[in-house]
Amino acid sequence: MAEPKTLPGANGKRHLLGRIFIWTLLLAAAVLYLGPIYVVLSTSLKDLAEIRAGALLDLPHELNFTAWREAWSSACIGVRCEGLRPYFLNSVIMSVPSVAISTLIGALSGYALSLFRFRGANIIFALMLFGCFIPFQIVILPMAQTLGYLGIANSITGLIVVHTIYGISFTTLFFRNYYVSVPQELVRAATMDGAGFFRIFWHIMLPLSIPIIVVSVIWQFTQVWNEFLFGASFTSGGSQPVTVALNNLINSTTSVKQYNVDMAAALIAAAPTLVVYIIAGRFFVRGLTAGAVKG
Amino acid sequence: MATISIEHASKSFGSTDVLKDISLDVKDGEFLVLLGASGCGKSTLLNIIAGLEPIADGIIRLDGEVVNDVHPKNRDIAMVFQSYALYPNMTVERNIAFGLEMRKISKAERKATVREVASTLQIEHLLSRKPSQLSGGQRQRVAMGRALVRRPKIFLFDEPLSNLDAKLRGEMRTEIKKLHQTLKATMVYVTHDQIEAMTLADRIAIMKDGEIQQIGTPQEIYSKPANMYVAGFVGAPPMNFVDVDLVKREEQLGVILPAVLRGKPVDYFLPLPNSEQLHARENTKIILGLRPEMITHNAFTQTVNPEIACDVELLEPTGADTLCLIRLANHPAKARISPLFACTPGESMTFTIDMARVCLFDAESEELIG
Amino acid sequence: MSNPQQRKQQMSVLDRLQRYLPQLVIAPPFLLLVFFVYGFIAWTGIISLTNSRMLPTFDVQGIQQYVRLLAMDRWNVAFDNLLIFGSLYILFSITIGCVLAVLLDQRIRAEGALRTIYLYPMAISFIVTGTAWKWILNPSLGIESYMQKLGWESFQFDWIVNRDMAIYVVVLAAVWQASGFVMALFLSALRTVDEDIIRAAHLDGASTTRIYFGIILPSLRPVFLSAFVILAHLSIKSFDLVVALTNGGPGYSSTLPANFMYEMAFRRNQIGLGAASAMMMLATVAAIIVPYLYSELRAKRHG
User: For A82-86, A94-98, B183-187, C57-61, which range has the lowest pLDDT when averaged over its residues?
Assistant: First the structure.
């Protein structure tokens, strides 16, 4: 917005006070937002004795990565003492196909819904959109049974299927709202040039869609990676995703609480989505706001 | 040969009728302009010819063959769009060649054809650029190139110049006209700009509310507008309409023109040629249509045309002419005079009325009389 | 090309197929969602009318599961918690997010960095958020004991183990996670405000504060609405955060309906009751979402 300072005759002193006030609030907020991650990180680098001494906010005396090593490869989750690693891999195996498939389907259906406004397209879109908002508690009971019928209960394949299906609502929304802003004349011109539905999609729309593909992939990845309810409901033991394993690790009551290992495990579980966020934050924000701001 | 023939075409979106029983013939090699305000159905009509929109009723023939169910790509038609609709991800070269590519024409042949078209349009130096790196005028040329490259028998233009600034618009207008003269192809051109329509068209079809109001040469449309809508739409400034009484004085049929002279109302009698049609309307209200240039200064000492003297409220010099705002039948009207004869505002001045060219309209139906 | 007539005929069959391709392409994903969303809702609805315990049965009995549900203290606590949690979560997230967005809109040099800091919690799973806050707030080694060791002997912050206060801990962690998102929503909307309006207001002699309260914020009404709808439905869905932070405790004092449903369906072999509670959750979401979607899509059609 227009900067008042640049207006001639503005009160310089009042302006300075205002700036100090703004910066104080902004920095205080930054400290509060960063606080938890600082505490988690510093705890994960301390040894247990240091933690028990109770200096929560102090920096660790020395950088000690044993807790990280343990969390990754030897901490006991349930009866297995292999650390988070197998579950982390489960999450990777689960995320990649479900993100790819749901993005592809969303791209095609968003394209069909936005650029070919056939009769009923709006109703179909509204019905699909509602799928973004349902509480998943409403589908877990039938889904558990269905996965059983299909023979993919308690498997990563089952989770891939579930995440793909319920991701379609979101990916369709992203692509539909993106393609709505593409001028209809482009499709008409390509039709005159002799390109059909799929060739227009492949030659013209997909090359235009890189930004929204990134948005969709990041969003779906974050959703699938961070998801807990489906993982907890449909899997047990060795086929659980990392979020469920982390929760089991934290809440295990068998041995002495190893807070440093817990915190390291939490950071390991959060790392992929955090890295994606830091690398591609701009697209992450667009995904978050895509559903909220009119397309 | 490339003729277009539309018979009784109708189309509606939901409850609004966009086209109502349109019939239209376009001759081979003709440049037809569809002119009308936005929402009159002219673009829909164009899309129907292209095959981009199906019609509810009626028949479309290209070269006598019914094409209602023929896909756009098989109609041998090219179209230039208002937004140019260039494919943003492709270079200019590929944009132009895309239609050929889709028709499975060999790469070498594509390349040669694109070069040729590019040189006609003087865009060879732009071939490797992306559309986003082009100016508006350049994009327009590329869009033309994309249409030209396929050598179609029919060209359709959907307001192709409306996104350009005034100067470029004039230049491109000339180029399109030249192109038509060289290619001798059938062209249908949609616009809301009457200057484009007048300068480009062999014939103009004026549309309103999904109906064709009049089809004719630019000159016919200008001098013999079929109704008041056409008369008011074409011409700038628009035709002045004056409510007048048709009376007979001393065996001479004529109209009473109320004007204002030195602040006082004054009536002038303007004689009209005796005709059967007018006799029948004696002592009724009709509407007198006067284009600004029909009310002008008297450059000669002698004239057969009637003269009126009235107050000039305002002057608008346009360079070549000066427009005088006067008051006829209590409504503002514009007269077009030479700047040499201009008076000062507030003074009164004598104008001659070119009675041979005036238009008379029925007060009820608003149709041209005669 | 030897027989052009025949060629044209062939084309037109393909072309006719082309005309229906959009519908053909949308059909499979649409039918998938019809089955897996609407079909499953119906399925759950039917189960909620049965006496299903460990395994679902389809022997419809009537609404007694709902009657049982509404009489259960555990459910009523969960639903009251949802009202407390939902309203505070929405209120604080929107207030904090809006304030941060307006402050960041004042040509702050480090805007990019600050934005990244405010928003990163949104990239983290609820489980991790819950784990982190649970550690920070635990009374024996967390912030309470740290403050006491610093010399502030009377400092008390044991909400996480306090029956009456545990739900507010959930609010705290949830607001920490979502307020940055609201900030991003508002900031992107602030960037679309017409600069000319602000210039005009300056010329009219309005102060920056007045411009925000009188002109800009009122023009962001749709954003407030969007933020409200998104946060409201997120609060109804909230499940993982409670699991990781308090696990519903102490006792069941901080459960939310989502946790109630899971508990009944998967731990206590009360599938019928779980289904009934899921239907209640869906009804709550629908009451907010359906009018919103209806008005959004209608507005789009007319615009």
Answer: C57-61
Chain C CB contacts of B74 below 8 Å: 8, 11, 15
Distance, CA of A171 to CA of A219 (rounded, Å) = 9
pLDDT at site A203: 93
Q: Tell whether C67 is covered by a domain.
A: no
Cβ separation A226–C119 shorter than 8 A: no
* High-pLDDT (> 90) share of chain A, %: 44
A294 falls in which pLDDT band (50, 70, 90)?
very low
Is pLDDT at C4 greater than 60 in this prediction?
Answer: no
For chain B, give every residue range classified as CATH 2.40.50.140: 240-362
Is the CB of B47 inside 8 Å of chain A's CB atoms?
yes
pLDDT tens-digit profile of C204-251? Answer: 887 878 888 888 888 888 889 888 988 998 899 889 999 988 888 788
pLDDT given for residue C301 in this prediction? 55
Residues of B with CB under 8 A from a CB of C: 69-71, 74
pLDDT at residue number A293? 39
- Say how far apart CA A7 and CA C202 lie, in whole Å: 9
- pLDDT tens sequence across C15-37: 777 778 888 999 999 999 999 99
CATH 3.40.50.300-classified regions of chain B: 4-233
- Cβ of B259 under 8 Å from any chain A Cβ? no
Q: Which residues of C touch B69 (CB under 8 A)?
A: 12
Q: How far is B343 from chain A (nearest CA, A)?
A: 48
Which chains does chain C touch, 3 or more C-beta pairs < 8 A?
A, B
User: Which range, B34-48, B301-315, C129-143, is most confident?
Assistant: B34-48
Please give the ipTM for the structure prediction. Answer: 0.87
pTM: 0.86
Q: What residue in A sits closest to B147 (Cα-Cα)?
A: A193
- The class of domain B240-362 in CATH terms is mainly beta
- What structural domains does chain A harbor? 4-64 (no CATH), 85-290 (1.10.3720.10)
State the smallest CA–CA distance between residue C132 and chain A in angstroms: 6
Mean pLDDT in residue range A90-107: 95
Q: Are B217 and B202 in contact (CB under 8 A)?
A: yes
CATH of the domain spanning B4-233, picked from 3.40.50.360, 3.40.50.300, 3.40.47.10, 3.30.1360.20: 3.40.50.300
DSSP for chain A reads: ---GGGSTT--HHHHHHHHHHHHHHHHHHHHHHHHHHHHHHHHHTS-HHHHHTT-TTSPPSS---HHHHHHHHT--BTTB-S-SHHHHHHHHHHHHHHHHHHHHHHHHHHHHHHHS--TTHHHHHHHHHHTTTS-THHHHHHHHHHHHHHT-TTSHHHHHHHHHHHHHHHHHHHHHHHHHTS-HHHHHHHHHTT--HHHHIIIIIHHHTHHHHHHHHHHHHHHHHH--HHHHHH--GGG--HHHHHHHHHH--SS---HHHHHHHHHHHHHHHHHHHHHSHHHHHHHHHHTTS--
CA angle B330, B333, B337 (to 5 degrees): 140
